[in-house]
Amino acid sequence: MLDDRPREECGVVGISGVENASEMAFLGLYALQHRGQEAGGIVTVHEGEARMHKGLGLVADIFDAETIKRLEGGTAIGHVRYSTAGGGGARNAQPIVVRYAEGDLAVAHNGNLTNAHDLRTWLVKEGSLFQSTNDSEVMVHLVARSRHDTVDAQIDDALTHLEGAFSMVISVGDTLYAARDPRGFRPLVLGRLGGGHVVASETCALDIMGATFVRDLAPGEVLKIRGGKVTKLRPLPPVDRQSPCIFELVYFARPDSKLWGVSVDRARRAFGRQLAREHPVEADCVIAVPDSANSAALGYAEESGIPFELGLLRNHYVGRTFIKPSQADRDFGARMKYNPVREVIAGKRVIVVDDSLVRGTTSRSLAKFFREAGAKEVHFRIASPPVRFPCFYGIDMPSRKELIGSDHSVEEIRKELEVNSLGYLSQDGMEGAVEESGPFCSACFSGDYPAPLVDVDKGYVTGNPRC
Ligand code: AMP
User: Fold this and answer.
1) 3-class SS of residue 59
2) What is the pLDDT of residues 76-133, one digit of tens each?
3) Domain locations along the chain
4) Site residues for ligand 1, CB cut-off 6 Å
5) Pick from 87, 93, 105: nearest CA to 48
6) Which of the listed CATH numbers 3.60.20.10, 1.20.58.220, 3.10.560.10, 1.20.58.1000 matches domain 2-243?
7) Run of H or E residues at 169
8) pLDDT tens for each residue of 182-235
9) Which of 10, 204, 245, 441 is catalytic?
10) Are 437 and 266 in contact (CB under 8 A)?
C-alpha cells in the first residue's frame, strides 16, 4: 500500500541540442530550488546512453564539478523534489530511468497524478515490477507496455492514461519530449538556447541559463524536440475547462518568473492592492512576511498609501537543526526563521501581510513576536482566501483537519492569532486580479476539484476532501 494522500512539489528542466547540457540542467535546477529541496537529479544522454546522478538535499550539495563533467551529452532532463508522497528518500528521487526497447527512457514529472494508484494496481496485475513508490513511475511502465509501433505513439498512448496534474519532461535516447496535462495545472515553458532548446517549470530557470523565452506550453500540448527542431505531436484529448493552479501565483512560483502571460510579481502586487481595497485599516506601516509575501505587501502599501517597512527579517540559512526546542516553545520553528526589527515596530500600528495561511502556526508565532516587539496594534492581512481543502494536484498541503481555515471562522482565527484584525482576500478578488490568465484551479480555497480524484474515490488514498 502506498502512502496515503499525495503531497509533493517539484520542478523540472529539459535541455536539447546544447553542448554542455548537464551544466545548463544544473543551473536550471538551481533556479528552481524553491520548488523542491529534498532531492534532485539529472540524466544526460551521451551516444544514446543515459547517465544519471541523483541525491538527497539541495542541488548545490548533490552535484559538483566532477559529477557535472561526467554527465556528458547534449540532451538532459532534471528534477528537484520535495515530497511526503510515496515517502521520501533516494529511491523516489527523479528522473526515473529505465532501459526499454527503443533506448534509455528517462522521466521527470512535476504535479500529482490522481489515478496513479489505480493505474499501478492494474499494471502490477499485468506483471509490472515497480522500483519506487512515487506516482510518476507509472509513466515508464505505460510507455513500455504500449502496443503502438513508434515511440511518439507510445508516449502519446501513455500520457492519455494519466489523470490529474503533470508537467513532464521525457528523454528517449537523445530525443526530448515535453508534455503538459490538458487542464494545465502546473507551468512549463519553452526557451531557446543557441541552436538548442530548453523547457523548464518556470522562466527564472531560463534566465539563469541565458535562454530566451519562447512561450508557455499550452495545456494538453506535447512537444518533441530533436536536432534543433521542435515538433508538435497530437495534443492530449481536450477537457471542458483548463485550470492552471492559482496557488502558483499566490505562493509557489518565484516572483521573477512569468507564468501564463502574467508576471508573478505583478500578480502578487495586484492581490495586495485588491486586499487593501477589501480590508483597509488605519495603521503606520505595512510589513511583509518575507519572502513570499513581499510583492503582495508592496501592493497593499501602494494602494493604501501606508509606507512599506522592513520590519521582519528572515534567516535564509535555516536547515535542519540539532538543537531541540524546549517543549514549552511552540514558536521555535518560526523563531529560527523570522525576527522582527524592534526599532521599526515599537509603538506602531502594523499591518502584517502574508501570502497565505495554512495551519496558522507561523502567523500565531509572528503575531506574538510583533506584540513582544512593542507593536501598538497588529493587523494581519492575507493575500489569498482561507485554505480550506487539501491539494491533490501537486502542492503540499496538510489534511483538512490541520487546515485552520477548514473549520474556523475568520473571527475565530483572529482570536486564535490574538491580533487586532484579520482580513483575507476574497476568492472573487483574487481571481479578478489575474482574470486575463484564468480561469484557474482554486480547489484549495473552494473545494471545487477540476480533475477527477480517481484514487480518492476508489478508496486508494485517505484524506477525502469531501468528508
Ligand atoms: P502556516 O504556519 O501553516 O499557516 O504556514 C503559512 C506559511 O507557509 C505562509 O507564510 C506561506 O508563505 C507558507 N506556505 C504556504 N503554502 C505552503 C506550502 N505548500 N509549503 C510550504 N510553505 C507554504
Assistant:
1) helix
2) 999 999 875 555 677 789 999 999 888 899 999 999 999 999 999 999 999 988 988 8
3) 2-243, 263-447
4) 251, 289, 292, 354-363, 395-397
5) 105
6) 3.60.20.10
7) strand 167-172
8) 999 999 999 999 999 999 999 999 999 999 999 999 999 999 999 999 999 999
9) 10
10) no
pLDDT digits (tens, 9 = 90+) for 268-324: 999 999 999 999 999 999 999 999 999 999 999 999 999 999 999 999 887 666 666
State which amino acid sits at residue 79: H
Q: Is the predicted pLDDT of residue 5 greater than 70, yes or no? A: no
16 alpha carbon to ligand 1 midpoint, in Å?
A: 35
Query: Cβ distance 7 to 48 under 8 Å?
Result: no
Q: 358 C-alpha to center of ligand 1: Å?
A: 6
Q: Which residue has the CA at smallest separation from atom 9 of ligand 1?
A: 356
Q: Which cell is 423 given? A: 482580513
pLDDT tens readout for residues 366-375:
999 999 999 9
**Three cell numbers, residue 342:** 524592534
Rounded to whole angstroms, the Cα distance separating 73 from 357 reads 44
- Which residues lie below 8 Å from residue 399, measured CB to CB, with a gap of 6+? 5, 390, 463
Gap from CA of 334 to ligand 1 centroid (Å): 11
Q: Is 10 an active-site residue? A: yes
The confidence score (pLDDT) of residue 397 equals: 86
Atom of ligand 1 nearest to the CA of 404: 4
- How many residues appear in the chain? 467
> Would you put residue 280 in left (φ > 0), alpha (ψ -120 to 50) or beta?
beta
Mean pLDDT rounded to a whole number for the chain: 93
Looking at domain 263-447, its CATH class is: alpha beta
H helical segments located in 227-305 = 246-247, 264-278, 294-304
The predicted-structure confidence for 414-465, as pLDDT tens digits, reads as follows 999 999 999 999 999 999 999 999 999 999 999 999 999 999 999 988 766 7
> Which backbone phi and psi does 232 adopt, to 5 degrees?
-85, 125
**Element spanning 122, H or E:** helix 116-125
